Amino acid sequence: MNKKPFALLFALVMVFVLAACQLAPAPAQPVGYGMQPRMISVNGTGKIYLAPDVAYVIVGVQSQDENVGSALTKNNEKAQAIAAKLQELGIEAKDIQTSSFNIYPSQQYSPEGQPTTMLYVVDNTVNVTVRDLTLLGKLLDEAVRAGANSINGINFDLLDRAKAVADARELAITDARSQADSIATAAGVSIDSLYNMSVYL
Rounded CA gap, 10 and 6, in Å? Predict the structure, then answer.
């Protein structure tokens, strides 16, 4: 199973107030006129790449029968067989959760377009959290063998993004400050303080 690394990108806008000393004096202002501080605005970015450590799999189980009770029984048997097989592979019960369950009639038609029998369809969608990614290939194979009709999606993610986000944010701040220092040096001025910062993940 191909697991692409995550690219966590943290972006921010930082506005720095320049120190009072400038290359050229500021023009005189009328008494009582509020002086606006001179500022530098920069955009900083921080990006880190991480391998996913968890996968979320959506397993679909569909059964149909002319009798709604029989359709339900068939679906329950398949769902239980899938859950049992997944637990044999090491998936905990709490990581196997039903996310949707639907029952609806489906009218059948003859080749001539005439209504024939009425089937009852039962759709059961189960979300599976896979914490050991080495099991993923075997898990999918066993789920299908146990009665799963579809694998609707496999999403890779990180169980704990907090440290990754903090690391990316730190890189973004360092990048922004470096840009501001470089601009200030080139302009012959110095930075006094941070005025404002807006962050985006």
Answer: 13
